[in-house]
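Lab meeting prep.
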Amino acid sequence: MFSLTSKTLRRGRRVAAGSLIAVTALTLTAGVAQAQTSTKTASDRCTADNLSVRLGRTDIGAGNIRIPLVFTNKGKKTCSLRGFPGVSLTLKEGTPVGKPATRSGSVGSAVRLKPGQSAHAVLHTVNDGVSDTPCWSKAQLVRVYAPGSKEAMTAGTDGLRVCGGRFDVTTLKPGAAD
């Protein structure tokens, strides 16, 4: 039969206390590292003030329509973008056309843009007649929110029309893709 002595109990408490201190220290260190990464990422995030946005050349094929949405760093410092832009269509006076684009694919990696460099996401819809779902009215503007931004930017369209109820956007990738 095993009996616990006060010496055994004290040793067990010291080991448990040491383990708790080690776990706490590791947790705090990881939290500080994560906070530093988040602060750096947030501080070098591209904003509407240092970006321009435009639509690239439309690619039509196999019943699909794909249009690059190109972001260019017009600032004087390198900045980062990561994730999906928010995209909706409007008429010139701002009346919404249809619903905002849904996200397609995974988030992807951060894209670092030096001044003058570009990144792109791809807008996707289908050709008229591919589906029984009717097309939306033609849009005159694309309202865009860069990932992490609450400030909208706009780009003109050549009468972009969403058909088949399908309007989605990919995550950002390096380059202009057009």
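Slide two material, second protein:
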Amino acid sequence: MCRWMAWLGQPVLIEELLFNTQHGIVDQSLHSRMGAEPTNGDGFGLGWYGSGEGPGLYHSVAPAWGDANLRELAGHIESPLFMAHVRAAIGSAVQPTNCHPFRHENWLFVHNGYIGGLHAVRRDLMLAIEPGLFADVQGSTDTEVVFHVALTFGLREDPIGALERTVGLIEAVAEQHGIPDAVQGTFGVSDGSTLWAVRYATQGPARTLFASSDADAIKRLHPDNPRFARLSAEDRLIVSEPFSDLPGLWHEIPQSSAVTVRHGGVLEHQAFTPRVPVSAAHA
């Protein structure tokens, strides 16, 4: 399907998490252990927040493991909040406009999974997008449609609530078309200050998603690890699959749930319950 990661914490060189980990996101692009496909080589995307206005973006259709430009950038960009995504295309073209993260103003959005029967539901979902946002959909992925529907339903004010309404709409439209597997996957969202993540599937097990343990717990478990000694209380990772096999570092995010990561290493959990938005229910 895809793999993604998000970091919120102290500023770090991006290469530390993309390249300098046992099983980081670049390694996962070639050797995913928990994904639907072991190889995710249909493009790469990086979105980061720094000193400029809004997030920066780098997209490439080259596989992450062979992208010399990515390695060069990752070795020189330091960021306190960034998201990376490796893609395994399932029906849409391999092109830069289909690479995650997607951006709107100061928001970034990534997805691992699919919208079932997209060819049948895409028109209805596109028509739900606010007219002022409609022209911003440039690619052909289901993810970009989901992002713009969520923006329409209030992502900027209430990210989890907007995604609940978005998924509720998708499931309602899919039901009208006789599509049982409406939504599958995980979603990641950030405004540059906070990070939100969702794990959900209409039916069956959802794609995997993990959060890192708090820094103090990691240091207590592995006191002799020099990399972990540099961790601060601010640091949290959300990942499609763990970056290492060391015990105690990762906690699986339950299915049908959402997490909010705030500065200070705060990790909040809540249930994720899709609901049809009022505007759609009375349309």
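Talking points for slide two:
The mean pLDDT is 92.
The chain has one domain: 2-281.
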